[in-house]
Amino acid sequence: MKINDGRFSLSRNQCFFLFLVIGVVFFYYCTNIRNMAPDWNFKWLIQNNLTKLFTFRNVSLDWNRNWQTLETQTAQQTAAPYVSPGPYLVEYPYEYHFTINQELKCKQENPFVVLIVPVAPRNRAHRDVIRNSWGSEKLVNNQVVALLFLLGMQTGDDAEQVHQQLLQESNEHHDLIQGDFVDCYKNLTIKTMVMLEWLNSYCSSAAYAMKIDSDMFLNVPNLVSLLLKAPRTNYMTGLVEHRGQVSRVPTSRFYVPVDLVSDDVYPPYALGLGYILSLDLTKKLIEASRHVKALYIEDAYLGLCMRHLGIPPTDPPGWNLFHVFPIKYSRCEYSKIIATTTLQQMDRVWIWRDFKRPGRYC
Ligand SMILES: *[C@@H]1O[C@H](CO)[C@@H](O)[C@H](O)[C@H]1NC(C)=O
Question: Residue 259 gets which letter from DSSP?
């Protein structure tokens, strides 16, 4: 910047730089990049155009109203007429039942860590990719790793047909769990709570569970080494979001109205793409969920339950271990991480084969 005769002038480069800085600040202010992480993917981004970047995610809960939740929940359990919890809450707690189950899996395999992948009933392709890639790691560092897919119910005309196919798939692979709730995006919180209920009922002898999305790459050996050094209780880790901003933009995919949620920021929570729990937490979180309104944003909801318990999630021991923005594949890069989102066009089975071939990583 130069000051000539008391006047203020900028060179073209300085102007450009200034605009760039203002642009970056504005963009960051509007989007809060880390906040758009949990459901971020390229396909969605392209489908919704960049404008949606400005309407990402924002929530927090109104704690003073928790007692009302309890009242409503009790009412729902005793009174006959169905009352919808509205667009931002889900129908939980309920006792969901399992229409497909692996009751004995954990008793028989005695896993150290259980990987649970929520996936839509129809999405067999994703399940097969995982079975043929990181899901095939069954024994790592002398520790048993179990893999399960968690589904809800398919709705629509072909629901029965889909269910028959699932039964067949389950006979083949013995890795499906299906709860009797409607499987849809808005019901992810139910899916998560059903996962915790399942772990609590059928797998409480495992040391850890990891919830991981179906479009992720998981470096299982690195996961197991992390867990061998981790605390065995009150432990939740992953990509921990601190002070996640609350957006009040009604068109946002993550909008939650002020009367439901009054805080400006979430309590710390692990992003839903892949988080790890010590098994003692499943029971505690289920208990906490009775006192916290069942918000439809599943990972933030677990953060709220953790706050209720007074247990903060733990940051992973390195910033480079969990990635929400896809890391470009290279043997070297992937050998250092635990989990990353992948791009849709990446052939994950090929990547896995390449990754597992012998030889130096870097
Ligand atoms: C979520 O699941 C519950 C239980 O099955 C169901 O009543 C509700 O309609 C589902 N929500 C949506 C948006 O489909």
Answer: T
